Amino acid sequence: MTYHVPRPATAPMPVFNRAPVAPRVARPDSALFGAFVLEITTPDSTLTVPALAGWQLRVWPVARLGDATLEARPVDAHQNAADLVQALHAHGYGTLGPVRTRKAC
Question: Taking CA 89 as the corner, what is the angle to CA 105 and CA 37, rounded to the nearest 5 degrees?
Fold first, then answer.
């Protein structure tokens, strides 16, 4: 004699017709805004964009360590991260953590 335990009815799993995923294509560095990303402290702890000659800057108030996150792109190709940090310190801005170089994604 077989003991039978009724089971609840189950529907089969739905089949999703997924569109093929296109591979991510790396964008050239010129397609990205900033070459350098770093966290800063501002002189008066408010969100202000420093006026640095030779740099295009974007600042937003999301930061783990400081007052803001700064994204910078040099106007001249010969400027590097050390030049950016030096210019920020000359205007009273502090830098926290490493200066990260943005890569194409």
Answer: 10
Q: How many CB atoms lie within 10 A of CB 37?
A: 16
3-state secondary structure of 88: helix
- Cα–Cα dist 16/7, whole Å: 26
Tokens coding 56: 């295009």
Q: What is the pLDDT of residue 40?
A: 92
pTM: 0.65
Contact 98, 69 (CB under 8 A): no
Distance in angstroms (rounded) separating the CA atoms of residues 79 and 84:
8
